[in-house]
Amino acid sequence: MNSITSNDLARLQFERQAITLIDVRREKARQSSGCQISQAQWRNPADWLDWKDHVPKDLPVVVYCAHGHEISQGLTKVLEVMGLNARFLVGGIAAWEASGLATEALV
User: Fold this and answer.
1) Residue 92 in this model has a pLDDT that exceeds 90
2) Which of 7, 50, 76, 94 has the most CB atoms less than 10 A away?
3) For residue 102, is pLDDT > 80?
4) Which three-class secondary structure string do you get for the chain?
5) Percentage of residues of the chain with pLDDT beyond 70
6) CB 2: neighbour CB atoms within 10 A?
7) For residues 55, 53, 44 and 7, what is the CA-based torsion angle, rounded to 10 degrees?
């Protein structure tokens, strides 16, 4: 399964590379953190059957959850099986924040 580090994702964003960034943290975890990685689209992981077919197939996809474990890895695998170029963020948003990378307030 493909993965990406926080620094590599930050580089892609800095270079303005076109990607689809999906936040799949559980709603409670997302709301309690109050932030997200810039340009992320939140998708409820419990409703993945409803949204999986709407993920653009022509762009690389990066999926992240709180810590980069079961949720993001499982959904990355689903997207890969569907033929998408999907990767999960190693360590999730926790690793992103621990690296000192910026987040934005939830909208």
Assistant:
1) yes
2) 76
3) yes
4) CCEECHHHHHHHHHCCCCCEEEECCCHHHHHHHCEECCCCEECCHHHHHHHHHHCCCCCCEEEECCCCCHHHHHHHHHHHHCCCCEEEECCHHHHHHHCCCCCEECC
5) 100
6) 14
7) -30
Amino acid at 14: F
Mean pLDDT of the chain: 96
What pLDDT score was predicted for residue 5? Answer: 98
* Domains (range + CATH), the chain: 3-105 (3.40.250.10)
Nearest residue to 89 (alpha-carbon basis) of 16, 21, 41: 21
**pLDDT for the residue numbered 49:** 96
- 91, amino acid identity: G
Q: CA 40: distance to chain centroid?
A: 7
